[in-house]
Design a protein that fits this description.
Blueprint (H helix, E strand, L loop, with lengths): L15 H17 L15 E2 L11 E5 L4 E3 L2 E3 L1 H8 L8 E5 L5 H13 L5 E4 L1 E2 L3
Parallel strand pairs: 1-7, 2-5, 5-6
Antiparallel strand pairs: 2-3, 3-4
């Protein structure tokens, strides 16, 4: 006597609605996210200037100085670490420097001494546009 065995059908979930939901969430987060406008890590109050400004290039090396801190390429470091990192760059590299208007002159001189010692002279000082 032979038994008839029914083959079971494999039940599979339809993933189409799940994929739709994932794409909708992705679109929602992309639309509502705020993109980083500049690469400044320190909260600086730049001095005003009436001169025209150059558009910053992403390849430029950015140095920021506040009263207590210094940042290199959006990373907080010390002057000693800065000197080490600057020894690794090319002599003709463009360096943009943002200096808070409340910074003591001594800190600015210390930065320029490091740049001078390493013979880095392609500098661009960033200021805030003077609105009339």
């Amino acid at each position: 006597m032979r038994r008839l065995v029914k083959k079971r059908e494999l039940i599979s979930m339809d993933l189409t609605p799940l994929i739709d939901v994932v794409f909708l969430l992705l679109i929602f987060f992309i639309v509502t996210s705020e993109f980083k406008k500049n690469e400044s890590i320190l909260n600086l109050s730049l001095p005003n200037s009436a001169s025209t400004q150059k558009v910053l290039d992403k390849k430029d090396i950015q140095i920021e100085i506040s009263k207590e801190e210094i940042a290199y390429k959006s990373e907080k470091i010390t002057f000693e670490e800065l000197k080490t990192k600057l020894t690794l760059i090319k002599k003709d590299s463009a360096i943009t420097v943002k200096i808070d208007k409340e910074v003591k002159y001594e800190r600015v001189v210390k930065l320029f001494d490091i740049l001078n010692e390493l013979q880095l002279s392609n500098l661009l000082l960033i200021t805030k546009e003077n609105k009339k």
